[in-house]
Amino acid sequence: MPRFSQSARGMRSSEIRRLMAFAADPSIISFSGGMPAASLLPTQVIDELYGSLSLEAKQAALQYGPTSGYPPLLASLTEYLRSKGLPFEGQSLIITTGAQQAINLLSKTLLDPGDVVVSENPSFIGALAAFLSYGASMAAAPLDDNGIVIDELKKVLDANRSRAKMVYLNPSFQNPAGIIYSEVRRREVLEALAGRDICLLEDDPYGELYFDERDRPLTVPLKAMAAAGEPVCYAGSFSKIFGPGLRLGWLLGPAEIVEKCELAKQSMDACSSTFTQVLAHEYLRTGRLPLYLATVRAAYARRATIMLDALAAEMPSPVTWTRPKGGFYVWVTMPESLDASAVFAEALKSRAAFVTGSGFDPYGVKKNCFRLAFAHTPEEKIAEGIRIVAAAVRSIL
Amino acid sequence: MPRFSQSARGMRSSEIRRLMAFAADPSIISFSGGMPAASLLPTQVIDELYGSLSLEAKQAALQYGPTSGYPPLLASLTEYLRSKGLPFEGQSLIITTGAQQAINLLSKTLLDPGDVVVSENPSFIGALAAFLSYGASMAAAPLDDNGIVIDELKKVLDANRSRAKMVYLNPSFQNPAGIIYSEVRRREVLEALAGRDICLLEDDPYGELYFDERDRPLTVPLKAMAAAGEPVCYAGSFSKIFGPGLRLGWLLGPAEIVEKCELAKQSMDACSSTFTQVLAHEYLRTGRLPLYLATVRAAYARRATIMLDALAAEMPSPVTWTRPKGGFYVWVTMPESLDASAVFAEALKSRAAFVTGSGFDPYGVKKNCFRLAFAHTPEEKIAEGIRIVAAAVRSIL
User: B326-350: per-residue pLDDT in tens?
Assistant: First the structure.
């Protein structure tokens, strides 16, 4: 058997298979995977969109498309992103196979073994896996309720001045912590990075999923606030605003960087599915997105409320958790001496599942936290599931 | 602006954008891109398949799936591959985002900078781009009408004994040469590789596209002939047997290798489009593949015959070309002193396009060859296009 590459020897599993198995098992109350509820997926909209396609659109859907994306989708997506205040001057936009591929392409384009990526702690497990697969080392700064702790971020940046190539942030309804950066914190992040020549990758799959219209101004992307000329890349996704199965995301950033990513994509998958790009274009063009968002914002808000109420009622006092204003996640912190994997084992006996926190720790060591996803759990099961999880916590206290 | 990675600095464009533009321009007779004709894409079949989906299938189509693939598709694809004689004992199968991703995943899993990939000369431009993007060096052996020249292959393997990690071959209707390996040559390749501990990647997107049923036995994959335990990986694709826009391919190989590729895929795009996987499963399950193949085999055979007849009538005598028994391509070789890019420039003035050969040369130096794709060119335009190309050749002779 041939020897594996350095990259393959260092690969870390994000345990997608295991998380999906929990979510698919009806005998388990799952707070595990970061996926929309099946019942909320817009199957009827897809029926209507597919039914309205012309023969030419269907032929285009079955054919190769340009690596950068299906041109009509690039146009309708540009219009949508402009409406969110995102800049296009000197920038390029490409369609990617999920935001995961946007993260991977930028990693391939920027990272050599030994380079450092600075992230939040905790951070998105799929992004960490991508960075590590290119031989990067992680350095992280903690979060508080308003975002990454600026003094800690500066310390980490200063300590890695020569090796830091990228800062990876997920400012709106962060995965896994569920928090959203305040406007002040966003400005402080941009100030801390100004002039450092480090690429900021802003990952924003959840920004549209605020629960209360009054919180909308909080979701303005860093990319929309950054000074022109700063190397800020913005990754987004159709997964949470249409359907993950389409495997469509995007990367918007300085033309010089995004064109290298496009080159990397040529030999990664040639192009993303034209079939699903044609549907995504129709979805944007016909104004279905705002209608769908209105439905899911309300549904996720109800689920979050049920979960937060149940946590307040059930969870023993030394345990704390975040109170999300949007997105999919609540992040639970236990006293440092406790191990979330023991809670997990106990909860699973009573048929409830979640994700232990160590995978989200860029250093892979922190054991006392875990993530509860409320987005795919049926409303009527959430309180019961939280009772099981809280009982499991009490049993190891 | 941050510094690009070593990988990004070495990236080579496969010029997809340029090739697609030629193919999309109705004023140009295009022999450029390796794509099916739009009129041959099975849009009506897709209508029927989509129309027959249950609500559960539509929900699955919009949801994340396991990284390894949508389980029903893995099952139906396994049945199809078994019917082609491919082995499953000790092997794993994953769905990839086109065969291009299968090539990329195996490269990521096996190749470190400085490793050598041995290929045919000429070889598939997209595979070369993937190998080079991981810092590999290329070493190549020439083709004759029956496959890779065995003595040259052995020489190259011996000369790179410590650094060769992978051999990349495209034995059936090779891209770009159009030739198919004889059964004898296939056995000789396996003998030459036996015991060397080098991974053989067999890329087989065109094997089903033989023009004459009597040539079918020639298409038996190397993977089906190899001794158990040899590290042979088999990549295939739905692009040429269903539609490229689905972006679905696969990788079958030793479990240990393919499971590493699955891990790499987790952080590359999480999973391939579930939406198109659901459709591909229905396509296989309902027996549409053999019906579609019967149609396209006949259509591509007619196009190839028209092209070969026109070449025989028009091309000046010092020029030679291959006579494909299947697939998409004819490979044209001019006297060594001639430069295909001059022919290209001349032909384009009269509105005909093809792909010059230097991109297919693993060393990037050979200038006297070019590739003619007949698969996407309307039948009634082929003879006229060849007249333009032949006139361009004569003008620089």
Answer: 999 999 999 999 999 999 999 999 9
A229 CB burial (10 A radius; 0-12, 13-18, 19+): exposed
In a shared domain, residues A229 and A251:
yes
Contact predicate B319/B334, CB 8 Å: yes
**pTM recorded for the entire structure:** 0.97
Q: Are residues A342 and A326 in the same domain?
A: yes
Which of A271, A288, A305 is at the close of a domain?
Answer: A288
How far from the centroid of its chain's Cα atoms is residue A202's Cα? 10
Q: Both tokens of residue B391?
A: 């006139």
Q: Which domain holds residue B337?
A: 6-42+290-396
* CB proximity A134 to B under 8 Å: yes
CA distance B161 to chain A (A): 12
Look up residue B357 and give its DSSP letter. G
Residue A229 sits at the vertex; the CA angle it makes with A226 and A232, to the nearest 5 degrees, is 55
Per-residue pLDDT reduced to its tens digit, A20-51: 778 788 899 999 988 999 999 999 999 999 99
By Cβ distance, the residue of A111, A247, A276 closest to B271 is: A247
Of B5, B58, B62, the CB nearest to A111: B5
Q: How far is Cα A236 from Cα A221, in angstroms, rounded to an integer?
A: 11
- Flag if A16 and B247 touch (Cβ within 8 Å): no
Q: At what angle do helices A255-266 and B125-133 cross, to 10 degrees?
A: 120
CATH code, A65:
3.40.640.10
Give the nearest partner residue to B98 out of A36, A41, A270, using CB atoms: A270
Q: Are residues B215 and B148 in the same domain?
A: yes
Determine the distance in angstroms separating the CA of A265 from the nearest CA of chain B, rounded to an integer.
Answer: 10
CA separation for the pair B170, B308 (Å, rounded)? 22
The tally of domains found in chain B comes to 2
Chain A 147-186, residues with CB within 8 Å of chain B CB atoms: 165-166
Identify the DSSP state of A336.
T
What does the block give as tokens for B363?
A: 């060393």
The answer to whether residue B50 is domain-embedded is: no
Would the CB atoms of A244 and B62 count as touching at under 8 Å? yes
ipTM given for this complex: 0.97
Residues B247, A43: C-beta atoms closer than 8 Å: no
